[in-house]
Write a structure and sequence with these properties.
Helices cover 23% and strands 22% of the residues. It has 380 residues and is an alpha+beta fold.
Length: 380
């Protein structure tokens, strides 16, 4: 029977009818006469095996496909018993948790190769001494799934975004709670005893300084018709300033009165109360008079404590020379609770062009203290 792939058997043509030698030989069976060549059948050549078409390494076989040429029937793909048990044979598809015949575990769906370079199955990781990541001698290339990596990246980005957003909201909430006066806390102090609201007896506003200085004080220390200028505060009723200027030769006087009520602040020392903030401002003013910044071009002041004016008060006397003019200035600073009253009274002692002076430092000090007392009386 002819094998698959070979053509029908071919025989050489026999002699023509009637030609000698056709038919059975006349010689008997014991004769030594050779048989004609056409009697002996031509040997059948073995069929040539067809080379199987090349296939991509690792490409899955079609379901139900038979073994390739040259392979034993069992080497084509996974048999049912091995698939049920979770195992895999060479060249088959390996599911999650399946075993490779050489002993490693295969997961996810990456390509697994052995040290000889043969394909063992499809998976992403293989446990065991014979399997490892990367390239190299006998190394296994085990990439993670792209979909899983993309999902992980998206998850990390979402976590970073929402974490940063929550952190920023928390910082803003803390700043609002701590720095703004009169926070939304139900009690003046927080859990850490930090004051966030006005304490009883503290001032939320101050009176208008232009209306607070009495006419008697102005008439005594600023005789004549001084010019008044009001400077409203930057934070509503919590602060304001009023100036009076008297320019009538030989007298030149400038009276500046400022009142400010401080609020609770997280930047204040102590417990952050409004009174603590006012104490800090008082100390800063005193330091600035004792050691003026170079940019002011003012000499250090002579400090004198004043008793009976507010909770605490002092006066600072200076002689300022600029442009050929000499000016005497006395500054009185008084504090009551969380309110500060600052009065600066200046007089031109000597002018470069003449015509003004002299000014009495004692009179300036008395006038500044009188104006400060008037404002403190209005504050209460």
């Amino acid at each position: 029977m002819a094998q698959q792939g070979s053509g029908p058997p071919r025989f050489p043509p026999g002699p023509a009818p009637g030609a000698p030698g056709r038919g059975r030989s006349d010689a008997g069976p014991d004769t030594d006469e050779e048989l004609p060549s056409w009697v002996i059948p031509t040997p059948i050549r073995p069929s040539r095996r067809h080379r199987s078409s090349p296939q991509r390494p690792g490409a899955p076989r079609r379901r139900g496909a038979g073994p390739r040429h040259g392979e034993p029937p069992d080497s084509g793909g996974p048999d049912r018993d091995s698939l049920r048990a979770g195992g895999a044979r060479h060249g088959g598809d390996v599911r999650h948790g399946g075993d490779v015949r050489d002993g490693g575990d295969v997961r996810d769906g990456g390509l697994v190769r052995d040290r000889a370079g043969g394909q063992h199955g499809r998976g992403a990781r293989r446990k065991g001494d014979g399997a490892r990541y990367g390239r190299g001698d006998g190394g296994l290339r085990l990439p993670f799934g792209r979909a899983r990596a993309a999902r992980a990246r998206r998850t990390r980005r979402r976590l970073h975004f929402w974490g940063a957003l929550a952190g920023g909201a928390a910082v803003i909430a803390v700043l609002i709670y701590v720095l703004l006066p009169g926070g939304a806390a139900s009690s003046p102090t927080g859990a850490d005893r930090f004051v966030t609201r006005y304490l009883p007896g503290e001032y939320r506003s101050v009176p208008d300084t232009c209306e607070s200085v009495s006419a008697a004080t102005l008439g005594r220390y600023l005789p004549g018709r001084p010019t008044r200028a009001a400077l409203p505060g930057l934070s509503g009723n919590s602060g304001n300033q009023c100036d009076w200027t008297l320019d009538h030769k030989p007298i030149y006087r400038l009276l500046q009165v400022t009142a400010q009520a401080y609020a609770p602040s997280g930047l204040a020392s102590g417990n952050g109360s409004a009174t603590s903030a006012a104490k800090d401002a008082y100390a800063q003013y005193l330091q600035a008079k004792m050691h003026p910044p170079r940019s002011t071009h003012q000499p250090p002041a002579r400090i004198t404590a004043i008793h009976g004016l507010g909770t605490v008060a002092f006066s600072a006397s200076q002689v300022i020379k600029a442009g050929g003019d000499t000016t005497d200035r006395v500054t009185v600073l008084a504090r009551t609770r969380n309110a500060l009253v600052i009065v600066a009274f200046s007089g031109l002692d000597q002018a470069s062009k003449g015509g003004y002076g002299p000014a009495s430092p004692g009179e300036l000090a008395a006038g500044a203290a009188a104006a400060a007392r008037d404002v403190l009386a209005r504050i209460g």
